[in-house]
Specification:
single chain, 298 residues, Immunoglobulin-like, 2 domains, five-stranded mixed β-sheet
Length: 298
C-alpha cells in the first residue's frame, strides 16, 4: 500500500522539477537543448521578410504584443554551413525609425569575433528568448550572428478603461446632499443639483423659502423637476430648475418620499441690474414695475 506521505513527497519533487529560471534579457541566450521555438502568442501571423534566408529563423508568429516572450531558433535549411564569427553565437534586435533606417534596440551593432561556430545543414541552434517589455509599437528585426535576419512586429494593446468595484449596497440608510449654490440674479432661471442614494425612479420633493420675508415661494411638497438619475455605485444625481423673481436670501429643503433623508442649503438671489439710458441716466420704474427711459434733455 502506498502511503500518503510518499505521494506528497513525489508530488513535491514533480513540482520542483517543473521550475524554470525567469526570462530576462540577461539570460536571453542561455544554453538549452535545441528545440523548435514556442511563442506564447496565441495567434500565428507571417510577415513578408527581407530575403529567402529569413526562413532560417524559426518563430511561431511574426506579431507580438508588448511584454510577450519572443522565442526563436536558427535552423540551417540550406546546403552550406552557416557560420558565426564567435564561439558564443548571439543576436541583436534593430528597430525601424521614422526615416526607414534601422537602429539597434538590443544587443550590439557588430558581433564579437573569436573562434568561429559552424551550423551545418540540418542543424539547429539553441533557443533564444527575450522580452520586449515597454517597447513601442513598430517593426523590429532580429539579426543573428549566423548572418540571417527576420522581421517581426510589436503591437501595443489599448489600455482598458478602469473599472470601479462597487461595495455591496445592502440596506443603506437614504441620504441626500445639495451642491453649493452660487449667487444668482432675480428673474433668471437656474438649476440646483445634488447627489443621493435614493434609487432612480423614486420621487423626491423640495421647498424654497426666504427666512427674512417669512414667506414660502415654492410650497412644501412640490415635486422635484426630475427623479434621481443613475450614477456610479449608487451615488445618483438629482436636479431642480428654479426661477425666483425677488432678491433675497433663500433656503432650499429637499427630502425623499419617506422623509428619512433630507438636506438644506442657503443661497442668495441678487437684484437685477438697473437699466440705464444712452446718456448714463437711470431709468425710472413705471407703475407696472417696467423701467421707463428718461425724457431726453432732462
Amino acid at each position: 500500500m502506498i502511503r500518503y506521505g510518499t505521494i506528497i513527497i513525489i508530488f513535491a519533487l514533480l513540482l520542483t522539477a517543473g521550475c524554470t529560471t525567469p526570462l530576462t534579457n540577461a539570460n536571453a541566450t542561455a544554453n538549452v537543448t535545441p528545440t523548435p521555438a514556442q511563442s506564447v502568442a496565441l495567434y500565428k501571423v507571417t510577415l513578408a521578410q527581407p530575403d529567402a534566408n529569413s526562413g532560417s529563423i524559426r518563430m511561431d508568429s511574426d506579431v507580438y504584443n508588448d511584454g510577450e516572450v519572443v522565442e526563436f531558433v536558427v535552423v540551417n535549411n540550406g546546403k552550406t554551413n552557416l557560420v558565426s564569427p564567435n564561439d558564443h553565437p548571439d543576436f541583436s534586435v534593430k528597430f525601424q525609425t521614422g526615416h526607414g533606417t534601422w537602429a539597434t534596440k538590443m544587443g550590439t551593432d557588430e558581433p564579437a569575433f573569436s573562434n568561429a561556430t559552424i551550423l551545418a545543414p540540418g542543424e539547429s541552434s539553441k533557443v533564444y528568448r527575450f522580452i520586449p517589455a515597454g517597447w513601442e509599437a513598430g517593426r523590429y528585426r532580429i539579426v543573428s550572428d549566423y548572418g540571417v535576419v527576420r522581421d517581426f512586429l510589436i503591437r501595443v494593446l489599448p489600455t482598458p478603461a478602469p473599472t470601479t468595484a462597487c461595495p455591496p449596497q445592502g440596506n443603506e440608510t437614504p441620504w441626500i446632499t445639495i451642491d453649493p449654490i452660487p449667487s444668482r440674479i432675480a428673474g433668471e432661471q437656474f438649476t440646483i443639483t445634488g447627489k443621493t442614494n435614493v434609487a432612480p425612479g423614486q420621487e423626491m420633493r423640495y421647498t424654497i423659502f426666504s427666512p427674512g420675508q417669512g414667506s414660502t415661494l415654492i410650497p412644501l411638497g412640490t415635486p422635484v423637476s426630475l427623479t434621481p438619475a443613475p450614477g456610479t455605485c449608487g451615488n445618483n444625481t438629482w436636479s431642480a430648475d428654479v426661477m425666483l423673481p425677488e432678491p433675497s436670501v433663500y433656503i432650499i429643503g429637499i427630502a425623499e418620499s419617506t422623509k428619512t433623508a433630507s438636506a438644506l442649503e442657503r443661497f442668495t438671489i441678487l437684484p437685477a441690474p438697473t437699466a440705464t439710458s444712452s446718456d448714463g441716466k437711470q431709468a425710472t420704474p413705471s407703475a407696472t414695475g417696467a423701467p421707463v427711459p428718461p425724457t431726453p434733455g432732462i
